[in-house]
Amino acid sequence: MIHFLFSAQVQCVVVAIYSGLAHQIWTLSAFLINLTTVTLYTILGVVIRKDGRISKIFKTSRGSNARLLRSLRVVAACVGLGWLMTMVVNLMTFIPDISDLAMFYTAAYAGIFVNVSIACNWFIYYFRR
């Protein structure tokens, strides 16, 4: 039987999975992925808006496709920006003078943006009809 003894206390919550270097790598990579996603969605939206052929397809069809495209844009913006805000708040845990408890609470409350952005999908898809 192998026993491992660690002196660090661990909270049993999702945000306490990573600590130390793993936390830094995960936070930075997630921030870069989310920033890239938001940038690509923005570029795609600009390209779709400027392309005349795609605009004609959505304008000629009684407005239902245009409403669907608008809903998809709003959902992509809510989810993408929710994740991006969560990662920005998580980047604040890299401040060197922050205590472990403050770092834990910052990471725990950063998830509120993701939860709100996911909850917005119901209002966008079903409530607006």
UniProtKB/TrEMBL annotation:
Gene3D superfamilies: Rhodopsin 7-helix transmembrane proteins. Its main location: membrane. It holds the Pfam family 7TM_GPCR_Srsx. Keywords: Membrane, Transmembrane, Transmembrane helix. The chain crosses the membrane at residues 32-50, 71-95, 107-127. InterPro entries: 7TM_GPCR_Srsx, 7TM_GPCR_Srsx_nematod, GPCR_Rhodpsn. One of its GO terms (molecular function) is G protein-coupled receptor activity. It is found in: Membrane. One of its GO terms (cellular component) is membrane. This is G_PROTEIN_RECEP_F1_2 domain-containing protein. It comes from Gongylonema pulchrum.
